[in-house]
Structures are given as structure tokens and as C-alpha cells.
Amino acid sequence: MSINNRITSLFNIEIPLIQAGMIWASGWRLASAVSNSGGLGLLGSGSMYPHILKEHIQKCKAATNKPFGVNVPLLYPDIDKHIQTIIDEKIPVVFTSAGNPKTWTPVLKQHGITVVHVVSSSKFAIKAQEAGCDAVVAEGFEAGGHNGREETTTFVLIPAVCNAVNIPVIAAGGIATGRQMLAAMILGASGVQVGSRFIASEEASSHINFKHAVINTKEGDTVLSLKQLTPVRLLKNEFYRKVLEAETKGASVAELEHLLGRGRAKRGMFEGDLDEGELEIGQVSALLNSIQPAATIVSEIWNEYNTLKATALK
Asked: Could you give all domains of the chain from N- to C-terminal order, each with its CATH number?
């Protein structure tokens, strides 16, 4: 059963569920599987060189005739090359994050591309709307990966952002079930973005060691870390403990940057080093217990949402 609302109309999709464009996880297999299931799949360009992004776009086009998009973290290098690739390949939807939406939104809009920006506060949501974004993702600090400094929870953030802007709001952070999707929609969101649960999908390009670590996660196993650099939610491991020790001793930004080094996220999430890798995952991982096909994940979330919505309206 599909639904017609502001998000499904904006993206030309069947159900208002977006798969987050996560680094080292969101390749063409995952994005196409989610799009084929009625949602919106996103390629995670943050862990791709420009030629790799082009390859994933072309493979995704071959695997689905449904709309899909690209997530572009603005703090990563090669942004101009990624943007040009997106324009050349006529991608219909771009999600931007971790940067100023004014930088690239006008360029993308000139080429008829729908632009969505990820925000962590009402203030940034207003700025995204002023920049010309078509929608925003309101991401609470329960989310995995790079996060807002405000540490506002999703349940507080969604209604605050909905009150602040007129453009559609997509809820993110701590959403992995139909029950959570319904709660987000009741709070005012027009759709949801799901990340952590798709890490534990068969099609995710993340390492099987990381997938197993995710489904074995318990409450309290993740923490918002590296706040002096860019806040990121991590699964506790040996690398995290080294960061904690350094921060406790008052390490400088330069010292933390040296400790982080290069390729730490790839080492953990893509290569499967669960001790020394950077393992980015959300709090909702504590609710996950199996690795499933992406189509099954979409179906379970959507069916539970509709069942509970019908019950709630009685």
C-alpha cells in the first residue's frame, strides 16, 4: 500500500521512507534495493572517489528504474567533482549534510535537482529553507555518524523543526521500526530516514564483522565522541577508549586529529577491524538482532507502520 504525501510527491516514490546515504555502507546494491521496494535509496558519496561515485550511479541506474539519490557530506574533499558527476548523470535528488547549504543548493537547483539538507536544530532548518532547499532531514543526536553539537533528541527536534519551517520535514535518528516511524509522523514529519537498520542489511557494503557487531549492540554501547572535532556517534571499542583517554587528559584538537589519522572509518566499517576502526552507528542498533535483505526491512517497517496507524485511529 502506497501513500501520497509531501515527501512521496517530492521524490516520486511510493512510501515516505528514505535509506540514509551512509559512508562505507550505501552503495548501488543497497540504494537500488530500497528504491525497488518503494522507498528512496541514497548512494553515500562521502566514502567514494569521483570515478567510484560515477560507477555506482551507473550501476544503480541499471539495477532500478525507480528514483534514487546521492548523499553528499559537504565536509569531504572532491565536492565540486561529485556535484559535477551528479549533474552530468542527471540525478534527481541530492541530500547534503555537514556544511552550509547555501554553497551548492543554488547550483543543484539550476539543474532541476531536488535538494534536501540534514539539520540538527531549528536554526539550521531555517537556514536550509532560506537557501532554497526543498526539504530538511531533522536528525536527532541518537543517530549514528556525524552529529549535531546541540545533542537534541529526535522527539524534541521533530516538532521544533516542523514549527520553524514550511518545507517538508523528514525525521531521522533512532528510527528503525514502523512503530518509530508512526511516532515521527505523528510529531509532524512527512517521512523518515533510516540508517542503522540498513547497515545490518545484506546489500550494505559494510563489512560482515561490522554488521555482526551492530546486531549484537546493547543499550549504552554507543556514545557521541570527538566533540572537539566533528561530533560522531561511535560504537565503543579500543579506538573509542583511546579517544576517551586522550580527551580525559585534555588532548588538543591537533592531538585528536593525529589519533584519528586517515582511513579510520574505512578500517572499521569497510575492512572489519572492530578494535582499531572507527565504528559509526546509532543508538537504535540496540533494537536490531538480525541481518536482513533491504526489501524485507522496508516491508517490515511499512507494514508495522500501517498496522499500528490503523489501530491508533480506532
From this structure: 6-205+285-312 (3.20.20.70), 217-284 (no CATH)
